[in-house]
Amino acid sequence: MRIATIDVGTNSTRILVADVEDGEVRPLFKTGKVTRLGRGVKETGRLSKEGIEATVGALKEFKAIVERFNVEKVVVVTTEAARRAENAEEFLNRVRELGFKIDVLSDRDEAELVFLANLKVFKPKGKAMTVDLGGGSTEVVYGNETSVEFLKSLKFGVVFLYEEFGEDLVKLEEFIRGELLKVKEEIEPSQDFTVFAVGGTITSVVAMEEKMEVYKPEVVHGYRVTKHLIDKWYKHLSSLPIEERKKVVGLEENRADVIIPGLAFFKVFCEVFSKESLTVSEVGLLYGLALREALNG
């Protein structure tokens, strides 16, 4: 069966078209747009008119993609911004008017889908952790292929961090370190575990390092990003004004502001968990949703 999964996130809206059969997923097409549905939600408690319009505009484009690929089933979910916003129903109704059924995914379901999909794809030996840094929340899951030992949805992502701290790097890192130390204390992880990093920040590191004028998921997926590489780009980009960052090859223009809190997060993560490298994964929520359909089918 040919399906499309659509993830309406706090920072970006993305689509994956795939064929699913016998518990397997074969991706055919993937794209996304930075739409900032969650801009201002932390401060106002509401989805902004601009965020709603940008997201609805992207979904109209995705509807044409669905038709072009002769998709048989469409699965649309939205996450943290809609979970928080008091006017979420207004946005959900706009999406339904396009002919899409949309669900507000719980933070637990979001985290488990990403974790289990990564374990199926990478088949790590021993313990593993997925860290999915989004726009409005960050999901951390730890365990192995038979059990989830720890799951937490941290109520901040790159958009919320940027709105809260701007580019005050000292306060930004201090906050992230405090939150991650609490996570580490709860998990009490073994020293030897693999980390799969998911989201636009960490994939951007690869795209910038490899000077990708056109994004290449096949290069990004499985790429080992070292702590040194994260530190390098964090120092470089935070030294540039936003307008200069927009010219950096491999970095989406609309990510030029939120890339700083994103890199700060992964810098501090590596320090707190004593990790010299992370494995970059293209297996995020879109793939997890497709895999769920494949297994249910």
UniProtKB/TrEMBL annotation:
SUPFAM superfamilies: Actin-like ATPase domain
Occurrences of domain Ppx/GppA phosphatase N-terminal (ranges): 16-294
Example GO molecular function: pyrophosphatase activity
InterPro entries: ATPase_NBD, GppA/Ppx_hydrolase, Ppx_GppA_N
Pfam families, A to Z: Ppx-GppA (PF02541)
Protein name, as recorded: Exopolyphosphatase/guanosine-5'-triphosphate, 3'-diphosphate pyrophosphatase
